[in-house]
Design a protein that fits this description.
Elements: E1 5-9, H1 14-30, E2 34-38, H2 51-56, E3 59-62, E4 65-68, H3 70-77, H4 84-89, H5 96-122
Parallel strand pairs: 1-2
Antiparallel strand pairs: 1-3, 3-4
Length: 130
Amino acid sequence: MTERLTVLYNGSCPICSREVAHYRRRAERTGASLRFADITDPGTDRHGLSVDAAARQLHVAQDGHLTGGLEAFRQLWSRLPGYRWLARLTGLPGIRPFADWIYRRIAAPALYALHRRRVARQGCAIEDRP
C-alpha cells in the first residue's frame, strides 16, 4: 500500500507557511490524500532533511523517497483538484526543463534570500540538525 504524500516545509518561513496553509485548506476541502509536516516542530520526521534545506525549496516524501524542487510541486499539484492541470502543464517535454530551470535558478533562490534576510534581521538562530 502506498503511503500518503507528505509535504515537508519550513514553518519558520512566513512565505512557505502561507503557501502551505493554502494547499492544506484545499486538501481538507477536497479530501486529497496529503499530510503536511513543519520540520521546525520537534518530533517531526524530517526524512533526513535539514531546516536550511527545507527553506531552500519545497520537499515531499512518500514511500521512503524524498523529492524536492519543481518535481515536489508537481507531485503535490497532481493530488489537488484545481491544480492537476498545472502538474500536467509543467510536466510537458517542452515546458518541464524550462519550468525546472526557472524554479531552481530564479524562484527558489529569490525566496531563500528573502528567508535568510528575515532570519538575519530577527537575529534568529534556527536549529539545523539533519
